[in-house]
Design a protein that fits this description.
The complex is a heterodimer.
Chain A lengths: L8 H18 L4 H22 L5 E7 L5 E5 L4
Antiparallel strand pairs in A: 1-2
Chain B lengths: L8 H15 L3 E12 L5 E6 L4 E6 L1 H4 L11 E11 L4 E11 L2 H18 L16 E6 L4 H13 L4 E6 L7 H15 L4 E6 L13 H9 L4 E5 L7 H5 L2 E2 L3 H8 L3 H35 L1 H49 L1 H6 L4 E4 L2 E2 L11 E6 L2 E6 L14
Parallel strand pairs in B: 3-5, 6-7, 6-8, 8-9, 9-10
Antiparallel strand pairs in B: 1-2, 1-4, 2-3, 4-5, 11-12, 11-13, 13-14
Helix pairs in contact in B: 4-8, 5-6
The chains are: A alpha+beta, B alpha/beta.
């Protein structure tokens, strides 16, 4: 399984955000670069907060048909 | 021999079958399992043995489904059943209705045996354990769709992190076939390649109920998984083989859900702190740069160029002065020139010439500079410096020594 296929945007965004915060805190980048990073950081924060704002858990169930093909359907609690 | 009855093989086999099958109804047999085999048809085949003898045994699929655990080689059991004879082969076997481990101790021993074996093989090695993702967004769950475990996990995840997506693979979690389903589910989820973490588990129960999670096939599927797995079987006190192989053991399914995801408020707080740190870092960065600039402005190294600048500006001043001077000179020169020019022009003024006794002859308003151009018998104007007179041209007399002007 390649890492690219198993992409977790939220985790990537949060990790990137963390790296930006570290860089800005160290203050070792140029003003121009830090302004760019700051803007990116604010954008990532917004995206992450939007993701976290999702209200309802999505639950699906995985089944296989007779040919072994996967199917995902809504899961109803019994 | 004439009076003696001769039986066919079928006759005697049929008689033996009658004696054996009617003679040993509903018996209990204690022994150790060997040559255990779960046939693809769903029937179980194995041998029961002790120090002195052995007997073939079979359990048909319809009864296998009611087994709470999977019998394994070496396990001591008590089997309930009948003796049956299989005529085509002339063999007899124990047709099992029910199999029970010889007390919990026996299951415990099977557990210890497998644990030792897998441990020696390295399935529990810390070095093989995968780190759990910090912020998983897609969770696979392998459990019963009807148990308390899935309800508990959904409730914990809804409360803590509703942003995640759950993919449940519904499986049997106890009885024969459960282990196979669990192992297949783990493999299937790995095939999907889209999950961050998998929780495998079930709620509490007896050792027999939890037995599927003590089976080798499940242990190997967990070990094989490329996706990190949290094992959550039974209650806090229950330890299963899957707990040892998994990347993380959770005491209960609810606890697994709590360990898998952070609380959203924790993350929101984290992001807010990130934003705050970024803003203050930017402010610091800008104000420290402002200070740097101010320091530089007052610094020697910055003032040296200013000195240079002053020098330059001085020379510019000098140049300006020189420029002004030259301009003044130029204007003075020009002024002088103009004066002399105007004097010269003045000297060319014909009026002044007239004063000296010359006159201008005009005919039809135009000055006539040659006798040839003067029209005879016409009037002409003679302009003096102080007036004019109108005359009539009577005769033109040419000077012979003047060449005709071109």
């Amino acid at each position: 399984m390649s890492k690219k296929e198993n992409k977790n945007n939220f985790e990537n965004s949060l990790k990137r955000l963390e790296a930006i915060v570290d860089s800005l805190e160290q203050g070792e980048v140029s003003l121009e670069e830090s302004l760019k990073m700051f803007e990116e950081g604010i954008r990532l924060s917004k995206e992450c907060l939007e993701t976290l704002g999702k209200a309802e858990l999505t639950v699906k169930q995985l089944t296989k048909d007779l040919n072994g093909k996967f199917q995902q359907t809504e899961f109803e609690e019994q | 021999m004439e009076n003696e009855k001769i039986l066919s093989v079928s006759d005697i086999t049929r008689q033996i079958k009658g004696v054996l099958e009617l003679g040993f109804p509903n018996i209990l047999v204690q022994g150790e399992i060997s040559n255990f085999k779960l046939h693809s048809s769903g029937h179980l085949y194995f041998t029961l043995k002790d120090e002195g003898a052995q007997i073939s045994a079979v359990m048909w699929r319809s009864r296998v489904n009611q087994l709470l655990f999977r019998p394994t080689d070496g396990m001591k059991v008590i089997a309930r059943g009948n003796i049956s004879v299989y005529e085509p082969r002339g063999s007899y076997q124990l047709d099992c209705i029910q199999i029970q481990p010889l007390g919990v101790g026996e299951l415990q021993q099977a557990f210890e045996r497998l644990k030792k074996k897998l441990s020696e093989e390295g399935l529990f090695d810390e070095g093989h354990k995968k780190p759990l993702p910090e912020f998983p967004m897609r969770l696979g769950i392998v459990t019963s769709p009807t148990g308390a475990a899935i309800r508990d996990m959904i409730s914990v995840l809804s409360r803590r992190m509703p942003a995640v997506e759950v993919l449940l693979v519904p499986v049997k979690v106890q009885g024969i076939g459960a282990a196979e389903e669990i192992a297949e589910a783990i493999d299937d989820l790995n095939e999907l390649k889209s999950l961050d973490v998998i929780i495998v588990g079930r709620g509490g129960g007896s050792l027999e109920d939890l037995w599927a999670f003590n089976e080798e096939i499940v242990a190997r599927a967990i070990f094989r998984s490329k996706i990190p797995i949290i094992s959550a079987v039974g209650h806090e006190i229950d330890y299963s083989i899957s707990d040892f192989v998994a990347d993380l053991r959770a005491p209960t399914p609810s606890a697994a859900a709590e360990l898998a995801v952070k609380h959203k408020n924790e993350l929101i707080e984290l992001i807010r702190n990130f934003c705050y740190t970024m803003s203050s870092s930017m402010e610091n960065s800008i104000s420290s740069r402002r200070q740097t600039v101010e320091t530089l402005v007052h610094s020697y190294s910055f003032n040296r160029p200013q000195d240079l600048l002053r020098q330059r500006s001085q020379s510019v001043d000098e140049l300006m002065r020189r420029l002004e001077q030259s301009v003044t000179h130029y204007f003075q020169f020009t002024k002088h020139n103009l004066q002399s020019l105007s004097t010269r022009i003045e000297s060319l003024n014909p009026r002044l010439v007239l004063k000296r006794g010359y006159t201008i002859v005009k005919q039809h308003g135009k000055a006539v500079s040659s006798a040839r151009l003067l029209e005879e018998k016409q009037e002409a104007d003679i302009e003096f410096y102080d007036g004019r007179s109108i005359v009539k041209v009577e005769q033109k007399i040419f000077n012979t020594d003047v060449k005709k002007r071109k």
